[in-house]
Amino acid sequence: MHERERHRIILNLVQERPVATIQDLVELTEASEATIRRDIAALHVQGRLRRVRGGAEALHPQPISPLAAKPFRISEGENTAKKRAIAREAVALCSDGDAIIINGGTTTFQMVHYLTARRMQVFTNSFAIAEHLIKHSKNQVMLPGGSVYRDQSIILSPFDNDVTRNFYARRMFMGAQGVGPLGVMEQDALIIQAEQKLINQADELVLMVDSTKFQRRSSLILCPLNRVSTLITDDGIQDTARAMIEDAGIKLIVANVAAAEKPPESSSAA
């Protein structure tokens, strides 16, 4: 990750939390601890944050905070082949006429390439997903109300009285920061609040995570494993992770990355 992007993530996180710890920043940026310490030192010298023991804090905390999550355009380029293979398997679960929820994320975004020829009702909090489907398909697309977080290309609302409660779906498709024995993990409280509202509107929860997510951890639990109906991952999954998923009674679908075809070319729906 480029230094400029690391600095943006660091500055966003210090606005979101009283103290952004070095460990949190290492997990978010996937940089080394030494690199993060150098970044904090440089931003401290520039007067853009205050260096404290074990991390950094904002000089002037904002009333409305950015999200503690990677920008969409950075995450989109990571593990693309795995995400594409997972997305293909996810769309294979759908039929024309289905009502589905697609949570914003770079893995779920890959579904749009396989949804262009479908005719479904899609509720999504992702600007990127909604824009692509509106331009390149005849799927009916609905968006919730709330604040737009441009870096993550999502719409989130802390309020209960938005249109989310008026949409019922057979399945919800979502990614995650990490997956472990305690459940599905995310890094931002507002994201969790919004995702929990969406989960309540679907019969089945389909979790789409590449095999690297089984090694990642976060301090916030979105939901326990037993809430997940189906988990789709790639063929890099290790035996320990496979056993954890199967022991939890979750249907496991393993996507063959090498066999994944290039997604169909997007074109305007006829």
From TrEMBL:
Coiled coil: none annotated. InterPro entries: Carb_Metab_HTH_regulators, DeoR-like_C, DeoR_HTH, NagB/RpiA_transferase-like, Tscrpt_reg_HTH_DeoR_CS, WH-like_DNA-bd_sf, WH_DNA-bd_sf. SUPFAM superfamilies: NagB/RpiA/CoA transferase-like, Winged helix' DNA-binding domain. GO terms for molecular function: DNA binding; DNA-binding transcription factor activity. Residues 3-58 form the HTH deoR-type domain. Gene3D superfamilies: 3.40.50.1360, Winged helix-like DNA-binding domain superfamily/Winged helix DNA-binding domain (1.10.10.10). Keywords: DNA-binding, Transcription, Transcription regulation. PROSITE patterns: HTH_DEOR_1, HTH_DEOR_2. It comes from the Bacteria. The keyword Transcription regulation applies. It holds the Pfam family HTH_DeoR. This is DeoR family transcriptional regulator. It comes from Microvirga makkahensis. The lineage of its organism: Bacteria, Pseudomonadati, Pseudomonadota, Alphaproteobacteria, Hyphomicrobiales.
